[in-house]
Amino acid sequence: MDTDNTTNVGAIRWKLRSIMKRHQIAGYELAEYLDVHPNTVSGWRNAEYFPAIDAKKWSQIAAAINVLSKVDKIITPLDLIEYVASDNIMEDEDIAYNKRSQRIRTTKLTRKPRRQNVA
C-alpha cells in the first residue's frame, strides 16, 4: 500500500487568462470594474495556479466577467479553475522551465551590444 500521501496531491489551475481572452475582456477593463490597480489584474491573469484571493473576490471576478463579456455565455467562479493531478503538474513545470530557459537563451543571443560612450 502506498503510504506517501504527497504523490496523490494535485493543484488548482487558475484559468483567468483564457477566460478573459474567450470573453474579450482587457485587463484594464476588469481592473476598472473591480476598482483595483491594473497590475493586480495582471498578476491574477499571469498566475498559473490559484492566486491568494478570498472567496468574495473570486465571486466578484466571475461576476465582473459576466458583466463585461462580449460573448453570450455566463460563467461561475468554478469556471475560473480546474484540478490538475500531480503528475501533470510536474510535466507542466518541466515545460514551463524549458520555455523560460529557451527564452533566456534567445534573449542573450539576440541582444545588441551596448554602445560605448567615447569621451
Secondary structure elements and pairings:
Blueprint: E1 11-14, H1 16-22, H2 27-34, H3 38-46, H4 55-68, E2 81-84, H5 86-110
Antiparallel strand pairs: 1-2
Helix pairs in contact: 2-3, 2-4
Structure explained in plain terms:
The protein is 53% helix and 7% strand. The protein is mainly alpha-helical and 119 residues long. The protein has one domain (10-110): 434 Repressor (Amino-terminal Domain), CATH 1.10.260.40. A two-stranded antiparallel ribbon has the order 1-2. The radius of gyration is 20 Å and the shape is globular. 8% of the residues are buried.
Q: In brief, what are we looking at here?
A:
By secondary structure, the chain is mainly α.
Count of DSSP helices? 5
CATH topology: 434 Repressor (Amino-terminal Domain)
Order of helices and strands: EHHHHEH
List how many beta strands DSSP finds. 2
Model regions low in confidence, pLDDT < 50 over at least 5 residues? 104-110
CATH first level: which class?
Mainly Alpha
Say which CATH homologous superfamily is assigned: lambda repressor-like DNA-binding domains
Strand order of the largest sheet: 1-2
Please tag this protein with its features.
2 strands, mainly alpha, 119 residues, 434 Repressor (Amino-terminal Domain), two-stranded antiparallel sheet, globular, single chain, 7% strand, 5 helices
